[in-house]
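Figure 6 in text form: structure in, sequence out.
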């Protein structure tokens, strides 16, 4: 049993609350959910293909995750090693979002040891020409892009 003592505000009476541990955790999770739940302030724009594409792959590591999965990297630990700057939590969140969007599939194996593998769905495979074009563009313009990135110059288009 946990006992909380809330200090009175102005002329209100002092309140004591007795909670069991399960009630405490339930209330804490509910409170944190209320505090940290992101509420989108700007509505999603679905009026053109560019906006749809951006909504699907928006995330710091999503395109890189799709790329590595397409190259045969299927396990979360392997993906983490390929993208060491990303935290495991962020990668797990973005993998979950990609699976919810139908771009990747998640397979859970329970025997002999529990493991998870990711693969591209048919929809995800259709992204590969776009991603490969982006990779080629980056390689073709490496010199100019490295200068910009290394100098931390903000270029406006």
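Output sequence:
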């Amino acid at each position: 049993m946990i006992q909380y003592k809330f200090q009175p505000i102005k002329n209100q009476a002092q309140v004591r609350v007795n909670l069991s541990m399960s009630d405490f955790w339930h209330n804490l999770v509910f409170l944190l959910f209320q505090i940290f739940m992101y509420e989108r302030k700007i509505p999603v724009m679905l009026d053109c293909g560019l906006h749809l594409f951006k909504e699907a792959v928006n995330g710091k590591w999503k395109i890189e995750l799709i790329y590595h999965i397409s190259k045969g990297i299927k396990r979360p630990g392997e993906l983490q090693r390929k993208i060491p700057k990303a935290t495991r939590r962020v990668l797990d969140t973005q993998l979950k979002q990609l699976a919810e969007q139908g771009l990747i599939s998640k397979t859970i194996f329970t025997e002999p040891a529990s493991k998870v593998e990711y693969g591209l769905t048919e929809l995800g495979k259709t992204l590969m020409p776009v991603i490969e074009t982006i990779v080629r563009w980056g390689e073709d313009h490496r010199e100019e892009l490295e200068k910009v990135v290394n100098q931390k110059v903000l270029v406006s288009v």
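Caption detail: The CA atoms of residues 45 and 51 lie 6 Å apart.
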